[in-house]
Amino acid sequence: MASKIVEKIVDAATALFARQGYFGASTREIAAEADVTEPSIYRLFLSKEKLFNACLADVIARSLAPAQFQAVLSGEEESAEFSVLVARAVRRWYSSLSAQSARLLMQAALSDNKAWSKMAFDPLDKIIGILARRLEKDMRVPRSAATVASRTLILALFQFKIARHLLSPSDGEREAVDQTIEQWLDGLSPI
Q1: Domain parsing of the chain, residue ranges
Q2: pLDDT (mean) for 59-69
Q3: Closest Cα to residue 63, out of 23, 104, 6?
Q4: Cα angle at 133 between 187 and 80, to 5 degrees?
Q5: Measuring CA to CA, which residue among 100, 163, 162, 96 is closest to residue 123?
Q6: String of DSSP letters for the chain
Q7: Helix axes 114-138, 82-96, angle to 10 degrees
Q8: Rounded to an integer, what distance in angstroms lies between the CA atom of residue 95 and that of residue 118?
């Protein structure tokens, strides 16, 4: 029973923190959204800060782990040409994030709380590092250029995920992501 209540609170808090930020979302609003009492939040999480931590940890746990990204990129799941593996790995990472999750990660990354910032950036930095190492190895892109190129792609798609809801529903998200990856790969060829 308690785990269902915890899940309801984390889901409601994640939505509110993502939409309104840490300071914009009150525990009273979170309780109302989760259909629980405000004291239940404090009994289960002790503080609003610990609740935000739980939301952040949940979002990170639900996104594609760097080890999974590495497995797809290296062809462990299914072998293919390098550009196909890159597109597959990046697409899978992108799909693992909801817009709400990306917004919460951004809230954490931009906060003054260094632990939240580190927690939010670490998985992204690991994904960027894995992609950069593979570019360096498989496409012989110099290390500094591989890092910049990898960071550019991942952060551009991350930002697109956050802003996606602002676009009209007729815009094809998958096509836009695929086109971004394809253009990015084309841009690496002359390096």
Answers
A1: 2-58, 63-188
A2: 94
A3: 104
A4: 70
A5: 96
A6: -HHHHHHHHHHHHHHHHHHHHHHHS-HHHHHHHHTS-HHHHHHHHSSHHHHHHHHHHHHHHHSPPHHHHHHHHTTSSS---HHHHHHHHHHHHHHH--HHHHHHHHHHHTSS-HHHHHHHHHHHHHHHHHHHHHHHHHS---HHHHHHHHHHHHHHHHHHHHHGGGS-TTS-HHHHHHHHHHHHHHHHTT-
A7: 160
A8: 22
pLDDT single digits (tens) 11-46: 999 999 999 999 999 999 999 999 999 999 999 999
Q: What would the two tokens of residue 64 be?
A: 């594609």
- For residue 78, name the pLDDT band (cuts at 50, 70, 90): confident
Q: Per CATH, is 2-58 categorized as 1.10.10.60?
A: yes
pLDDT tens digit string along 129-141? 999 999 999 999 9
